[in-house]
Recover the amino acids of this structure.
């Protein structure tokens, strides 16, 4: 939210029903409930958020089971706004058109949609990060994920029927190499996020890409240094669109 300046990048006029798809822990839904207290907020995920009890006590937030790999269990023309963020690693590339078509079906005429995704490969990589990017490519292929999936989202939104499609790009630094204090803060936090990601993905990556744990640890350690040396960044993209009236 701090990096993107806001939770949403569309204009909403007294919405009555908002969906957060693949809501994770549900923080976005809870923040939107605070901003739109008269609006019903529904968050769906395959695992019910631990914050669901707090949300339900609010009265305007409801968390429920929902699998984005399957047709969504909502009626047509149901939501004023649909939001989804960071599902690249759980949604196979070939299912993106189906999901966006489902979003179109359940969005009200005149309703809005916002997708927030990122390019899987690091920008400005040195030799170590180039190797990590290659690992990403190999691992992603095993689960049907395409590293250039964001290049196709506008087309899928058009094919589904959405109009007024816009794309906003944010290049987020990884590390404390930027000059401004705010960007240094963003870069530090993102680098720590990458450190945690490397740790959490170790078992899977070592299995899928057939590297030893020792090599993996060494490459990840050097990658954290190379973020700083090469001024590397991650590219996030915000897609917004409208369902015609």
């Amino acid at each position: 939210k701090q990096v993107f300046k806001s939770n949403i990048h569309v204009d909403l006029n007294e919405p009555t029903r908002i969906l957060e798809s693949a809501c994770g822990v549900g923080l976005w839904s809870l923040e939107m409930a605070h901003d739109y207290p008269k609006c019903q907020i529904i968050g769906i995920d395959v695992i019910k958020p631990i914050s669901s009890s707090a949300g339900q006590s609010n009265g305007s937030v409801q968390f429920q089971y929902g699998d984005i790999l399957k047709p969504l269990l909502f009626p047509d023309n149901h939501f004023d706004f649909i939001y989804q963020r960071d599902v690249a690693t759980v949604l196979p590339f070939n299912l993106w058109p189906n999901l966006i078509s489902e979003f179109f079906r359940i969005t009200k005429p005149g309703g809005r949609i916002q997708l927030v995704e990122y390019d899987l490969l690091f920008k400005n990589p040195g030799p170590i990060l180039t190797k990590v990017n290659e690992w990403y490519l190999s691992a992603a292929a095993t689960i049907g994920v395409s590293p250039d999936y964001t290049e196709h989202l506008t087309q899928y939104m058009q094919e589904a029927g959405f109009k007024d499609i816009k794309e906003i790009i944010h290049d987020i630094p990884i590390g404390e190499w930027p000059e401004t204090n705010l960007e240094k803060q963003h870069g530090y936090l993102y680098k720590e996020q990458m450190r945690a990601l490397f740790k959490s993905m170790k078992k899977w990556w070592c299995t899928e890409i057939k590297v030893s744990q020792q090599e993996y640890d060494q490459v990840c350690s050097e990658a954290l240094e190379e973020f700083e040396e090469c001024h590397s960044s991650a590219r996030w993209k915000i897609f917004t669109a409208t369902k015609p009236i």
